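Hello,

Our lab assistant flagged a job as stuck in the queue for most of the afternoon. It eventually completed. Since we weren't sure the result was trustworthy after the delay, we are filing this so someone can double-check. Below is the sequence as submitted and the structure that was eventually returned. Let us know if re-running is recommended.
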Amino acid sequence: MLRLCLYTAPWRHNCCPMTASVSSRLAYIDWMRGLACVLMFQTHCYDSWLGGDARKSTFFMWSQLGGTLPAPLFLFLAGISFALVTDKLRQKGVPAGQIARTTIRRGAEIFGLGILFRLQEYVIAWGWAPWSDLFRVDILNTIGLSMMLMGVVCWIVLRLNRGSHARVALGMTAAAVGMSTSLLSPLMWTSWRPRWLPWPLESYIDGVHNLGVPQSWLFPIFPWAAFAFIGLGLGFFLLSDGARKLGATTFVLAGVGGIGLIYLARWLDALPQQLYATSDFWHTSPNFFLIRVGMLLMIMAAAYLWCRWGAGQWGFSPLIQLGQTSLLVYWVHIEFVYGRLSILPKRAVDIRTASFGLLAIFLLMVLLSVWRTRLKGRGAEALAWFYRPAKAS
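-- returned structure --
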């Protein structure tokens, strides 16, 4: 959903072609964010615009199934980026407390943007949006909270491990927190629900909103923060000396490991004995979580190879471009798909018309992204020109 840029860092990379080794290694992150944007566009467009029999079609089913990937991708990549930032600060000798303040503050900013977004949506939809929409737990809120939680966990680990094994400790702890979050999710949605909390606070735990039961369309900490912590753990692993020595082989092994996770999860799900009395496979099941993590690892491996040796480095890449401004295109496209400015009538068109609308949204967002990239950093120049004193004639 966003690029985790706490400051201008040396691993920030340009669009392809990639001339530096760092850019070659890290362009895949923006490419994956761009892929998440495209998957998000198609899910939202078809959900908003398709009507009648089109909503009962197999096409619509697969479209919405593809919509299960953008949120995990955004959170997973936020975790990887968080690891890059934390490790860089640690190598510079920044104290653990200062690293925590820097990263937690950035998470709080993203959380604040999530609240601002909800306020904007409520104002735009004034008159028909319920007031409870102000407290909806959306993906931006969860990304911000996950970043703050990752900051706390990294601070604790760095306080206890200051030597050469700190990176290993960080990675293993992050992975353990991620898996624990997933394993606790079925319980947090059922028997362990914190019903004693006011619903706006409980909703951040289990997505209950004000409807009495957890809602699958929201993004509570359980299980969604687990993807961020898995990304955090993987990020520290990718920064290890062993992973760097292996180079591209590391990503190939990650992809193979992803396939293994998918088969492991399917095997576990087929066992006659189950760990939980009640579990929602598509929303809280740790087995489905493992399947999606496996898919994320496969996507990461493919994206890395594509950006290093494939067409991902042939001139302009729309996906990398979208990935560099993913927060902006997320914020804007919602209004042209779900809002009052929707470019097509809602729940009223066929697949062909909706597909043309999706193409229009994609092109508009790419143009917006290019405009934002070119405008970045030119605000001071524009102000200087505007206030330039007129010459005497």
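-- support follow-up --
The delay was a queue issue, not a problem with the job. The result is valid. Residues 27-358 form one domain. Residues 1-22, 380-393 have pLDDT under 50 and may be disordered.
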